[in-house]
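Q: I'm writing a short explainer about RING-type E3 ubiquitin transferase for a general audience and would like to include a description of its predicted shape. Could you first generate the structure from this sequence?
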Amino acid sequence: MAEAGVLETMPRTMTKETELKKELEKLVKTILVEEDYRVEVTDEAMRILSVLKELKFKKSSKVVDNTVIPAEFICPISKKIMNDPVVLATGQIFQVFCTYGFFFRFCFKIAEALDLHDFILMEFLQVLDLAEVERGMYMSMFILLEFLWYVTPTDAIPQLLNPLSPGRANTHPDLQEDLITTIFNLSIHENNKQLFAENPHVIPLLVESVRSGTIETRRNAAAALFSLSSLDSNKLIIGKAGALKPLIGLLEEGHPPAMKDAALAIFNLCLVHENRVRAVQEGAVRVILKKIMDCILVDELLATLAILTSQQEAVQEMGLLGAVPCLIDIIRESSSERNKENCAAILHTICLNDRTKWRAVMEEEKANATLSILAEHGTSRAKRKANGILKILNRAASITHTL
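A: Of course. Here's the predicted structure. Afterward I'll give you a sentence or two in plain language.
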């Protein structure tokens, strides 16, 4: 009954904070004392708490609104109070932005407002001609250049690369690392991919940096080549520049982070026929197969190996290097349907081109029915390839039986 009385006498529209608090106190007491209080009591308590919160917020906002803030404290860009101001050379004050992304969004406005972007870009690029500059200054400049690039990129590349022309990149390892990292960051944006690849100095510098430099430099150079190779026209340019040999070398060396970037770049480049020929000639099959046998980057490298089976020389090399038992083991033991599919495709090509491998595949099939299981439960492509191998084996068996 006490509960009902509380609900009946409760005002439906309350404007004063003290009245709200009194009513809230009654409701809370009801919740604490009464065992069978209704759900509506809790709902009403929550509603009052929400109203109190809103009143508190409005009260705080009113205090701020009534305070006169000097114009000098307001950032001209964000229109908010500056808590970390910076004074430019022009004497204008702006907020130092807290995050990299925020910096990029608003710095365009600074450059446009001051009409200084061309001047700033060229001044910074000219500083890069100096022989001796502290690395910290270089890093700051490269960060600024990444932003300024989007304002006037046309003439920036030659000046940007000037300190590290191809052939002498590794003479300043720290500078090389910062510059290659900058190129990688800029290469991610679609508008820059063709611009970089068509410049006669960028790709040679990246290729040289994959070959020599700090491991971070080599990794970022490989990542930049992977990024640039997303355009088909760039794949040919990068391949002709001799990128595959150092990328294969970086993969073979075995530095975990760098290996993946190298593997991805090799895969992308091998999507065009001319680069497959180059990759096989540079020893890609041996290196890739060894990594797969060591259970390293199996997903990525199987996909590349499957692409390389379009080359007769690659197929022969796979057979000589013991690919057949390795592929069968993956089909039998892997949980990845894509890996099983790629293995079946590679094995099918080997069986079509090298009859000396039939016996090993037949023996495996008799022992474990690996291909029969795949033909029944694999992906549509895996089923097709597995059935193709089984037909080859059945024909071989019937010929042997006839003889």
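A: For your explainer, you could say: The chain is about 70% helix and 0% strand.
Q: Perfect, that's easy to follow.
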